[in-house]
Amino acid sequence: MDNTGDAFNAAVAAELRAQRGRIQMTIDTLVRHTGLSKSAVLNYLNGKRDIPVPALFALCSALNVSPHQIFDLAERTLGAERVPGARNDYDLVANETINEFPAGDDADWDSA
Fold it and tell me: How many structural domains compose the chain?
């Protein structure tokens, strides 16, 4: 795999396959519930194609699992440190605390 995005996509596909196995849903049933073509579903689940967001939501809905659960499981599989922008990367959170300015340097907050 070329990059972390490819690895994450493969991990998401693996989690979708695992969920399909857990609920024992056939590919044909999954195709019927998603409205996606059989070849697209197979390509997504086998990691041969990136999964577009609308397709991910359709697959998750049909598999009775939320996208965030699939992402959480995929992050754990890869190790969150390998996933750019993972939820535990708090440096990416803007205005994380209300006390982000040193004492006396919060003029913008005072006039807001």
Answer: 1
Range of the domain at 11: 4-111
Structure token digits, residue 13:
């596909």
CB 16 within 8 A of CB 59: yes
Residue 88 has pLDDT above 60, yes or no: no
For 17, the 3-state DSSP assignment is helix
CATH number at residue 78: 1.10.260.40
Q: Give the rounded percent of residues in the chain with a pLDDT score beyond 70.
A: 67
Handedness of CA 81, 83, 86, 90 (dihedral sign): positive
pLDDT digits (tens, 9 = 90+) for 36-46: 999 999 999 99
| Calpha distance 65→50 (Å, rounded) | 19
Q: pTM of the prediction?
A: 0.69
Residue type, 15: E
Token pair of 19 as six digits:
């969920």
